[in-house]
Design brief:
The protein is of the alpha+beta class. Helix content is about 60%, strand content about 5%.
Length: about 675
């Protein structure tokens, strides 16, 4: 129902998909703030659901009720016609939609696999991220983590965008399993993303072929890594069929190689669940921006020439159309219609902070480029910042993040070049021809034809007249989302710059898809070239997705002893207990919701926290003796996990811990209670 406030002529399928995203965001925000006040419970979830459903009151408005009834009738008519006498184009679209739905179901179903009491993942890049997200989800459901502390660094304010995991925790509280909650959420948001990207591309290009190509370019993104497959086929004894049945590695991102871009599904949307939440919401904001910017051109095109005006009485009146009314972009109504976009943008800090930074940065640039509408942009920024600033203050207050670790100079993103020292070092890198050559080869290898096609599309857009040049002007801020991360490190781990780079890629998709759609319309021979280009663009990413779906990879994260130990901890240890464990990604503590003195140092470091002081304390406690007892009392540690993980990473004084009572044990895993 809210979609009627920001997209007047959208079909019903888009309203349902966009509503799934905005409704999830509304429910998550309302439920989280209620949980801070009255606690996290079934009652809280029911209240949040009822409040999130409040937009149904819009049906009381007769005009919107009639629009909704008309959309439902139109959808029924379309479905009836399809099943009665489908056209070839409808069959193709239905087949593509069905294919994507099946792929998403099979893919996300392997993000977390529970079998024989153990937990696995079928996505290589999800090895460290799945335990992290489980630790956040269980911190809400089992640890009553309100206000949230960092599950991997007890006592520190949790600065990571947490709303995706909070919504999953709500599903778990209502009876879902961990895997089922994440599967439901991932499918909802990914299907919403496909629909929103389709709509965004169609609004920019007015080409249904381009709109169909767009989701394929995102979900199966990749570079030229597919070429390795054919080399492996030539050099190996096994045939191509056998190789495809058991792919040995990913083809878009590989450690210690120049392939770093990664497929969107396998490297981003399944691992960084907050991005999967923030991306469709942000693209929805972009869509509303474009609706505002494109209106001026629509008005110019609709204005008849002088001679037509003088002769209009001699002409028969035109038949009324069903198109949405034209709105002057400088009018008050157009300004108010951008309010939903501002509210969505203001909700982003708790959903995905990088998406919020992208939206505000792009809005500032567009305010300058389209300054004729500065009042509208100003209202957008004021409303968005008014909603976001309290969240930002709340998130960062009392945090231990070292902001200086998020900024630095680095040329070429994650191309293997070390960080440069200062601006002088960056300039020195830029003037070296070899550096630029390596830069171009790196990006050609990682994105394949995509960047050349962006240039071709830009030239084509420029030749389309005022509308094309307006599209390129709208694209300008997104160019900076490619240039900036290639010159500046925006996170302790430079690879995390991809959280900004992905928005350059998404904003470029309508240009590339639009040009391919234009070529498709030329003749039948041109269509062969388009199909070949799309195949080259999606083949590497498709191989990575197929590797997951086919079951070629399955990595154990927690064995049955770890799962059993976690269950015992949940029964025996208080919800606010402070645990000491090995600082690794797969400690059983992450399945308990209990606070960890120091969790996986890779995550703690990537969040901008210096973990070294705590690591020294942790090592001293495991070493045992009287200093260990003093440190246990000083830091309030109640339970210590001793297992093969701790023994492999630390010097563990087994005799020291045997003096304490055992509260949980499974196989070689033991939990000692070291304080009352």
């Amino acid at each position: 129902m809210l979609s009627y406030l920001y997209d007047e002529d959208a079909p019903l399928w888009f309203r349902v998909c966009a509503g799934a995203v905005t409704g999830t965001a509304a429910f998550g925000l309302i439920g989280f703030w209620l949980s801070l006040v009255i606690g996290f419970s079934v009652v809280t979830i029911v209240i949040a659901t009822l409040i999130a459903a409040a937009p149904l009151i819009l049906l009381r408005d007769r005009a919107k009720h009639l629009r909704f009834a008309g959309d439902v009738q139109q959808a029924r008519t379309t479905l009836f016609q399809f099943f009665r006498k489908p056209r070839l184009g409808q069959i193709v679209i239905a087949a593509i939609v069905a294919f994507l739905l099946v792929v998403l179901w099979l893919f996300f179903n392997r993000a977390m696999i529970v079998r024989a009491g153990s937990i696995f993942t079928g996505v290589t890049n999800n090895l460290g991220d799945l335990p992290f997200h489980l630790s956040v989800i269980t911190s809400f459901t089992e640890g009553n983590n309100f206000p949230p502390q960092d599950p991997s660094y007890a006592g520190a304010r949790f600065t990571y965008p947490l709303l995706a995991d909070f919504v999953a925790a709500a599903f778990v509280r209502m009876g879902a399993s961990w895997g089922g909650a994440m599967l439901l959420q991932n499918l909802t948001l990914s299907v919403g993303l496909i629909a929103i990207l389709y709509r965004y591309t169609f609004k920019i290009t007015r080409d249904s072929v381009a709109a169909i190509i767009a989701p394929l370019l995102l979900l199966f993104s990749g570079g030229l890594g597919w070429m390795m497959l054919f080399r492996q086929d030539r050099e190996g004894d096994a045939g191509l069929y056998e190789l495809l049945s058991k792919l040995p590695h990913d083809y878009t991102i590989m450690p210690d190689t120049a392939y770093r871009w990664g497929n969107a599904l396998t490297a981003l949307l399944v691992t960084q669940r907050s991005l999967l939440f923030g991306l469709p919401l942000t693209v929805l904001v972009f869509t509303q921006w474009w609706s505002l910017i494109s209106r001026e051109r629509v008005i110019e095109a609709a204005e008849p020439p002088a001679e037509t005006k003088s002769a209009k009485k001699a002409k028969a009146p035109a038949k009324p159309t069903m198109t949405a009314p034209v709105v002057d972009p400088s009018s008050r109504k157009a300004t108010l219609q951008l309010l939903p976009a501002a509210i969505m943008a203001g909700a982003l800090p708790l959903i995905h902070a990088h998406s919020f930074a992208v939206v505000i940065s792009a809005a500032l640039v567009l305010t300058v480029l389209f300054r004729k509408h500065w009042r509208t942009w100003g209202l957008f920024l004021v409303v968005a910042m008014s909603l976001a600033i309290p969240q930002l203050i709340w998130i960062t207050r009392g945090g231990l993040v070292e902001t200086q670790s998020f900024l630095g100079f680095h040329f070429g993103w994650d191309n293997g070049v070390p960080d440069v020292k200062g601006l002088g070092g960056l300039l020195s890198s830029l003037i070296q021809p070899s550096g630029w050559g390596a830069f171009l080869v790196f990006w050609l290898r990682n994105t394949g034809l995509f960047i050349p096609l962006v240039f071709f599309a830009a030239v084509w857009m420029w030749g389309r007249g005022a509308r094309g040049r307006r599209t390129l002007l709208f694209y300008v801020p997104f160019v900076f989302f490619f240039l900036g991360p290639n010159f500046v490190k925006l996170a302790p781990w430079v690879w995390d710059n991809i959280k900004v780079l992905i928005y350059w890629y998404v904003a470029s998709i309508p240009l590339v898809a639009g040009w391919l759609g234009y070529v498709w319309s030329r003749d039948k021979f041109a269509r062969v070239g388009v199909l070949a280009a799309v195949l080259i663009l999606v083949l590497a990413g498709g191989l990575d997705v197929w590797r997951v779906i086919s079951g070629a990879t399955e990595i154990q994260i927690f064995d049955k002893d770890a799962v059993s130990l976690a269950e015992q901890i949940r029964k025996e240890a208080p919800s606010n207990a402070l645990m000491l464990n090995a600082p690794t990604y797969n400690t059983p503590v992450f399945m308990t919701g209990r606070r960890s003195f120091l969790g996986y140092t890779g995550h703690v470091w990537s969040h901008g926290i210096d973990f070294q002081p705590r690591y020294r304390i942790l090592a001293a406690i495991y070493a045992g003796g009287s200093p260990a007892m003093d440190l246990i009392k000083e830091h309030g540690i109640k339970y210590v996990v001793v297992s093969p993980l701790e023994r492999s990473m630390l010097s563990v004084n087994n005799e020291f811990f045997r003096e304490f009572p055992v509260v949980a044990q499974s196989g070689e895993l033991t939990v000692y209670q070291v304080a009352p």
